[in-house]
Amino acid sequence: MKFITIVVLTCLLALLAPMNLVAETGPVNGTVAETINAGGYTYIRIKESDVWIATTTMEVSEGDPIEYSGGAEMLDFHSKSLDRTFESIWFVQKAGIPVQDTSQQTAARGHAPIPEGTPRDAAIAAPAPGSIEKLDGGKAIEEIFADRAALNGQTVSLRAKVIKVSENIMGMNWVTLQDGTGTAPNDKLMAISSEMVTVGEVVTAKGMLQNDVDLGYGYKYTALLEEATFK
Question: What CATH superfamily classification does 1-16+117-231 receive?
């Protein structure tokens, strides 16, 4: 639990001091298809990509052009204020209505209170059932979730495909793994590691399983693989 304790302390400190956000990526331009204000955030669905983004409260309406950059993606993020879970949502560093006249000041932008981090690659398709052979002596993701109470605090190993990597979130790399087993949302396992892997490759992962982890800022995990190593 050492790493979890450090992460929780980091989140608490984030409430008291400005965040050291990542360098900007983008900007990305689109059109507002839907917008919701709740809990100090503005949630915006982008028409062109059907992607949800979130930033601190700002004035924006359906049909407005929108420009955003930077930030990190949260998977299965549950908003308490909306009582709604987003399968995927980007908490962006900067967002605003683009200013056409370059002599004017740039649009007002929001800064979301998120840890530093940016995805390494876009998510790819999940492996088909039966396409990844179970590790000899290891566990399938379906088994990990089914036996998570007994496995809590234990070291587990598995063979799985790397679906997404988010780098340098609170100093670690967050790796989403799937092996074609399990039923959503318990068909993917998040692994936290200082090591880097490539999206799309099949790896052998090993780490300590922790259950029902709530790190704040929407970081909630039924099961989480800590201090993961990969082969």
Answer: Nucleic acid-binding proteins (2.40.50.140)
pTM (predicted TM-score): 0.52
Where does CATH 2.40.50.140 sit in the chain? Answer: 1-16+117-231, 20-114
- Closest by CA to 226, choosing from 182, 194, 203, is 194
Residue type for position 88: S
Q: Is the pLDDT at 31 greater than 60, yes or no?
A: yes
In the CATH hierarchy, which fold is given to the domain comprising 20-114? OB fold (Dihydrolipoamide Acetyltransferase, E2P) (2.40.50)
The answer for residues whose C-beta is within 8 angstroms of residue 83's C-beta and 6 or more apart is none
Cβ 74 vs Cβ 86: under 8 Å: yes
The burial class, CB within 10 Å (0-12 / 13-18 / 19+), for 190 is buried
Q: How many CB atoms lie under 10 A from the CB of residue 58? A: 18
Inform me whether the pLDDT recorded for 145 exceeds 90: yes
